[in-house]
Amino acid sequence: MSEEQNVNVTEKLQEVDRMVLELAKQRQLTALAESKTALARCELAELTQKYIVLQVYVKYSLTSSDSIDETGSILRGGAVKPDSK
After folding, report:
1. How does DSSP classify residue 67?
2. % residues pLDDT > 70 (the chain)
3. Dist CA 79 CA 65 (whole Å)
4. What's the chain's average pLDDT?
5. Sequence-distant (≥ 6) Cβ neighbours of residue 80 within 8 angstroms
6. Which of 68, 69, 67 minimizes the C-alpha distance to 77?
7. What's the DSSP call for residue 75?
8. From the CB of residue 70, how many other CB atoms can be counted at a distance below 10 Å?
């Protein structure tokens, strides 16, 4: 009987294959960073819109019961009441 020995053989990728893998990893990280930036810009735009609405409400002395329609008309007491669940 011959005794088999387990020998760990270390192999290496070709440099071009290693670089392709690294490039794919970097592209994924870049896409993730870009998506985080886009999300931050979206949140900033939403906050900016809310701030402008607040400024308009203050300027025209509007209350939470008032609303502004899409034509810019002020509807005093015309706000839709939120559902209370």
Report:
1. E
2. 91
3. 5
4. 90
5. 67
6. 67
7. E
8. 5
5 pLDDT more than 80 = no
The answer to whether 42 and 33 have CB atoms below 8 angstroms apart is no
Q: Could you tell me the two tokens for 33? A: 């960073």
Report the alpha-carbon distance of residue 20 to residue 11 in Å, rounded. Answer: 17
pTM of the model: 0.62
Q: What's the pLDDT tens digit per position in 18-44?
A: 999 999 999 999 999 999 999 999 999
Distance CA 73, CA 69 (A): 5
What are the DSSP calls for 8-51, one per residue? PPP----HHHHHHHHHHHHHHHHHHHHHHHHHHHHHHHHHHHHH
